Amino acid sequence: MAFAFIFSDVGVGEWFVLLAVVLVVVGPNRLPAAARSLGRWYSRLSRMAESFRRQLMEIENDVGEATDAAGREIEGAFTVEPDKPVEEKGGPDQKS
Questions:
Q1: Count of CB atoms within 10 A of residue 26's CB?
Q2: What is the mean pLDDT of residues 54-58?
């Protein structure tokens, strides 16, 4: 999780200072509503990030399938069947 890197450098004392600042700014009466609102926003952001990740994985799979199909098509173009004679075409300095 991306927030783990941010929160790993914050100590206990810093958490208390942060909580005290939030309590003073928001107020004790509005703190539960603010926490619920923050939780909703975090949930929405998390769902959007998961949706974005899923879409990227689908795009990656589609590109992989297209690449595989193109590779098989190219490989098939250069495959010579053993019972079919290969036609040689003359170059610019050879007469056809």
A1: 14
A2: 95
HEC per residue, 40-77? HHHHHHHHHHHHHHHHHHHHHHHHHHHHHHHHHHHHHH
Please state, rounded to an integer, the average pLDDT across all residues of the chain: 82
If phi > 0 it is left, if psi is from -120 to 50 it is alpha, else beta; for residue 27 that is left
Q: 22 to each of 18, 19, 37, 38, how far by Cα in Å?
A: 6, 5, 14, 12
pLDDT at residue 42 is higher than 70: yes
CA–CA separation, 71 vs 61, rounded Å? 15
d(CA 80, CA 70): 18
Q: Which of 31, 14, 13, 32 is nearest to 22 (CA)?
A: 31
For the chain, the structural domain boundaries read 11-77
Is pLDDT above 80 for 94?
no
